[in-house]
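Trying the structure run again after the queue cleared.
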Amino acid sequence: MSSSNSLERLLDRLEAAKRQFGSKDAATVEILTALGRRRFPGARSLIRFHEALLFFRAYPSSARILRLTDRLLASFPQRIALLRRTGADLEPFEQPDVSGISGTGLSAVFTYDIARWLARHYPDEVDIDWEGSDPNLLGPLLARLHPYFAEDAMVEANIPFLDWFRAAKAKVTASDLRWLISRLDKVPLPQDVISDLYANAELALRWELDNIPTTRTNLRLPSVRRFFYHTAPLLRRADVSLEAELKSPPLSIKKLNRARGEQMLDLARDTSAMRFRELHGFTYGDQSNVYRAELGRGVEVYVSGVLPEHRLPVRTYHAGMFFKNAVPIGYIETLTFRRQMEVGFNLYYTFREGETAWLYGRLLRLFQQLVGVTLFIVDPYQLGLHNEEAIESGAFWFYRKLGFRPTDAAVAKLLATEERRLQARPNYRTPARILRQLAAGWMVYGTGDRVDVRRKIRDGTL
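Done. Tokens:
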């Protein structure tokens, strides 16, 4: 058997072990130890190892597994450096599903506010990626940065935009990003105009992840001392009753002080940016209104409101990030109008075999308690409308099997047909084309009628 085949078989066994909790702890330790000694020849196999390690760090079956996964994850900067020295292709590490691994880097376009935040928190690690940016889009910015830019802008056909940027910066030694942010902060224009100027330039930022403590590999909640160990199989969707969860005893919810609230929002911004994501509620989170709740089974949730100047005119917005045994595993966004709440739930790809239905039910219980809603709503995008990832994962059936029902009559009729097929043919699987039709309408759970708030806001009839 070749070394490559042996490595692939070990990785296959490790990934299979995610579905064998309660009986294979010693075998998992053996596989992890064997893989820890191996040299990985390329990005693909090393990414598989990283994602499996993160899963077992979030869902350990014992303290031994937890310590071992932490130790192996700490080795990734050295493993990446070895790949770099051998000339391996590192581009796969920058894909959104796996970006943020220690020792790698990423390039992405962020909003002005997150660019400012990154420049402040990572002044030596983040800068403008000129190779990933188009200097031809700099014109409106340069008009604010150099007093004589109009000399070229009004008459020249081929403007050396990047040369003008360098001339405006002159001999300043700060990074290009830090200098740009400092200059824009002094421009006498409203903040939203500056944000638009920056956005129109579509500047890619390069973030090097060699020596920072908040990569996807090693970001942890601070001060977690009690861990939940999975000594039995993970909870399945069939083990979960959404009705029972919503009737369960109240959760313990604690409001954080302002300093702790800001710390948690920073963790949420880090975690999101590493994955090419920005959430309104994290970018503009209100540090004086951050709440912590324990859901059980090692899960903590931190929920924030939004600063007054960034609140929505009609609906109430909340964002939350949840952690499993100190590892960030996903986020949730909610929009509340009266007694109804739209819920956007995202469990990071790495953890999608980890008790998703139970976690979703506990999160709905939390928001029911926080806000007092009686009707939960899932929009068509979450179900698969213009969202092929949701189609591939069968998101519609995840919600349907928890008890959600469609509000569209045509979708309800198609659903009845599909459920008859499933009952008559146990091996039947709904084709993607039908899943797309099922995803065409909203789904709801609870009491009350859904108000189409988005349409009423647009029409001015609310």
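The chain has 21 helices and twelve strands. Worth checking whether this holds up in the mutant runs.
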